[in-house]
Write a structure and sequence with these properties.
mainly alpha
């Protein structure tokens, strides 16, 4: 969770470095990927507190597509942003992707805890 907070801070720093406000299309595209990553994080935390194997497994499965979502988003918006902002937008998108990947890591811990608990419980 600390690493996710670090990426949230990096996103804020990169937003402050933008030379122009992103247009509606760029904002919408970034927002859609961000919502996906946030849901993965929310669900990973829910699965942790509930010890919910199925929800954790779902997070891991869904998080596998975040890299392609990031790539598709960059392709979609690269012509919509000024060149000076391209690296900042890429860094924002990378941090969003990393958030989803860390959510998957949390969910994998839940999977491992569930398996370990089931193995160690006496029959």
């Amino acid at each position: 969770m600390e690493r996710i907070a670090d990426h949230a801070s990096r996103i804020a720093e990169n937003v402050l470095c933008l030379t122009e406000k992103p247009n509606e299309k760029v904002f919408k595209t970034i927002s859609e990927v961000s919502v996906f990553a946030k849901k993965a994080f929310d669900d990973s935390i829910k699965s942790l507190f509930r010890k919910d194997y199925t929800l954790a497994d779902d997070v891991v499965s869904k998080a596998k597509i975040i890299a392609s979502l990031e790539e598709d988003a960059i392709k979609e918006i690269q012509t919509e942003i000024v060149q000076a902002d391209f690296s900042n937008i890429r860094m924002i998108m990378e941090s969003i992707r990393r958030t989803a990947e860390y959510a998957s890591d949390i969910a994998e811990v839940v999977l491992n805890l569930n398996i370990t608990q089931n193995i160690t419980q006496p029959s």
